């Protein structure tokens, strides 16, 4: 790897050659010379731009191997990322004798980490909490510290590490070089920059359009209850080498893992409640292709740096747009082509639209593969594998086994069919179209009431003076209560309150789910209108007895 006006240590260059580095990335070209000059730096970059090597290479160039004390500390948000970055340092510095890198993080035995630190570590990579603990124990000594790195700084702030970061930086009583890398620069980061950096050089290298060209993005509109079936059809049809699946919660990861294991998929999972040693073992298995499907939460996946992921699947649409960017940034790296697939229910389609606005890039809507398509792909794959085995030859004793089967008097075609049945599982379920449609959600003004059968009139505490429009109420009620827009009738917007009609069957869902909800950032109270109060009490009482359902609303509905 060559960088203009930089002569790298030949042992570092040798290691980079081993790692397959041919050409420096843009952030490496811009950041490495500045860091080698001793300047503070603000590196604004996101996942997949090569920033670890951008600060790792110059740090290793600056380390005094004869001084067995901490000379560089790298702070990161997660344990997984600490392990990944420490491993990257070891790979780059594998031909540099006498330089030792140690990763420290919570959730692991601190005594083992103390032992490794006391053996003479010059580079420490860790999470803020554990670093503070080791500083307080005087195991990490700061008198010879030269460089401090804040990696994924915005994520550390989101996870509540701001005070820890400031405490660590304030404990250094001499001038050091501070390197800050962050995808975004929120107010909290700006304050750290002003307080702890001196005339920093800004290097901004963001992936094109936030999401790289190499990632083909698409989404599938399906009912929530059909997501598992849609997911398996996608995996079986596109057959990616390594697949990373994201869920929004730890429970979601656990549930999906159990379901995929039951269906026979070679998968594993990582999230915050899984033991650290098990998480690292799982990551290694995924990285080495022992498992080909990994299910993760956003926080746990922060430490993933796996270059061979061919597909990222959002089983659930993330709640934040930047989470989507980080997720799909796990594929399409180093010039390779990757794919991202998102499973969205009608209730989540707004999130897709928000992501498109955020990334300034459209996401292609695709149809969920049919059962016939899945079986066709399985057949083609099986035939290709068999032909490949035949062409390679060296069948040896397998020929004898084949002869023994034929000697039983069965035709060759029958024997082969039996073997295929034993080896390949085809989907023989009834063909079912999983593709959903978005219900019509056009707001209806007063005077355009539709016949929606028995309906209830609801009172809303917001109106024109609060900036509320019919579409706002329609979207909020349909979205929060997961009911079709076609079941919402006349909407009347007055100055300080509003009314809407909805099908009687949704009474409990509306009162239950709209409690605590907001419309356009304003707290909303939805109650049954006075003229329908008596009827609604009768309906609700009957339904509660029938379905054992009780709304959590504690206060009695006031008369309007």
In brief:
This protein folds into four domains: 10-205, P-loop containing nucleotide triphosphate hydrolases (Rossmann fold); 215-369, 3-Layer(aba) Sandwich (Rossmann fold), CATH 3.40.50.300; 372-423, no CATH class; 455-547, Alpha-Beta Plaits, CATH 3.30.70.330. The model is unreliable at 440-452 and 532-560 (pLDDT under 50). It has helices at 10-18, 26-36, 51-62, 79-92, 110-118, 128-136, 153-158, 162-170, 187-196, 227-238, 250-262, 276-287, 321-328, 349-359, 371-392, 397-406, 412-423, 470-481, 507-513, 533-547; strands at 41-45, 72-75, 101-104, 123-126, 147-150, 177-182, 201-205, 215-221, 243-246, 267-270, 293-296, 311-314, 338-344, 364-365, 455-460, 488-493, 498-503, 518-519, 522-523, 526-528.
Helix content: 25-40%
Distance between the termini: 74 Å
Poorly predicted parts: 440-452, 532-560
What is the arithmetic mean of pLDDT? 82
CATH class of the largest domain: Alpha Beta
Main β sheet profile: 7 strands, parallel
CATH fold-level topology of the largest domain = Rossmann fold
Task: Give the strand tally.
Answer: 20
Number of helices: 20
**If strands are numbered along the chain, what order do they take across the biggest sheet?**
3-4-2-5-6-1-7
- Choose one word for the global shape: flat
CATH architecture of the largest domain: 3-Layer(aba) Sandwich
Radius of gyration: 29 Å
Q: What structural category do the secondary elements indicate? A: alpha/beta
Whole-number count of domains: 4
The percent range for strand residues is 15-25%
| Assigned CATH superfamily of the largest domain | P-loop containing nucleotide triphosphate hydrolases
């Amino acid at each position: 790897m060559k960088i203009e006006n930089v002569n790298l240590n030949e042992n570092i260059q040798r290691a980079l050659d081993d790692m397959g580095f041919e050409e420096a990335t843009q952030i490496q070209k811009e950041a490495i010379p500045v860091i080698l000059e001793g300047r503070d730096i603000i590196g604004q970059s996101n996942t997949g731009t090569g920033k670890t090597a951008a600060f790792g290479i110059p740090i290793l160039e600056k380390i005094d191997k004869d001084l067995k004390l901490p000379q560089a500390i790298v702070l990161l948000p997660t344990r997984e990322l600490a392990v990944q970055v420490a491993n990257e340092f070891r790979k780059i510095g594998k031909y540099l004798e006498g330089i030792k890198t140690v990763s420290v993080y919570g959730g692991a035995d601190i005594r083992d980490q103390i032992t490794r630190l006391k053996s003479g570590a010059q580079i420490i990579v860790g999470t803020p909490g554990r670093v503070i603990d080791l500083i307080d124990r005087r195991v990490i000594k700061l008198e010879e510290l030269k460089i401090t790195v804040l990696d994924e700084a915005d994520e550390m702030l989101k996870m509540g590490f701001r005070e820890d970061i400031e405490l660590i930086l304030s404990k250094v009583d001499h001038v050091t070089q501070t390197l800050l890398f962050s995808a975004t620069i929120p107010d909290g980061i700006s304050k750290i920059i002003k307080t702890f950096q001196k005339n920093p050089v800004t290097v901004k290298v963001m992936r094109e359009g936030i999401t790289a060209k190499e990632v083909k993005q698409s989404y599938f509109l399906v009912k929530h209850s059909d997501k598992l079936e849609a997911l398996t059809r996608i995996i079986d049809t596109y057959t990616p080498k390594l697949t990373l699946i994201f869920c929004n919660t730890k429970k979601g990861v656990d549930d999906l893992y159990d379901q995929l294991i039951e269906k026979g998929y070679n998968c594993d999972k990582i999230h915050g409640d899984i033991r650290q040693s098990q998480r690292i073992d799982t990551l290694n298995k995924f990285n080495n292709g022992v498992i080909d499907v990994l299910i993760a939460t956003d926080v746990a996946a922060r430490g993933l740096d796996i270059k061979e992921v061919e597909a990222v699947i959002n089983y659930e649409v993330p709640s934040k747009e930047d989470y989507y960017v980080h997720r799909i940034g796990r594929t399409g790296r180093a010039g390779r082509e990757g794919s991202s697939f998102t499973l969205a229910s009608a209730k989540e389609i707004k999130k897709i639209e928000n992501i498109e606005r955020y990334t300034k890039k459209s996401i292609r809507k695709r149809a969920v593969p049919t059962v016939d398509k899945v079986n066709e792909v399985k057949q083609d794959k099986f035939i290709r594998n068999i032909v490949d085995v035949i062409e390679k030859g060296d069948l040896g004793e397998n020929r004898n086994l084949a002869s023994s089967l034929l000697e039983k008097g069965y035709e060759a075609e029958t024997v082969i069919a039996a073997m295929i049945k034993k080896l390949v599982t085809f989907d023989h379920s009834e063909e079912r179209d999983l593709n959903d449609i978005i219900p019509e959600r056009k707001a209806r003004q007063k005077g355009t009431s539709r016949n929606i059968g028995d309906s209830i009139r609801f009172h809303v505490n917001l109106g024109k003076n609060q900036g509320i429009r019919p579409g706002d109420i329609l979207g909020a009620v349909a979205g929060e209560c997961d009911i079709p827009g076609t079941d919402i009738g006349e909407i009347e917007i007055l100055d300080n309150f509003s009314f809407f009609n909805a099908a009687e069957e949704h009474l409990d869902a509306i009162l239950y789910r709209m409690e605590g909800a907001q419309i356009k950032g304003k707290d909303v109270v939805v109650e049954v209108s006075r003229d329908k109060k008596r009827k609604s009490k009768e309906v609700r009482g009957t339904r509660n007895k029938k379905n054992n359902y009780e709304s959590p609303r504690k206060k009695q509905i006031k008369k309007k």
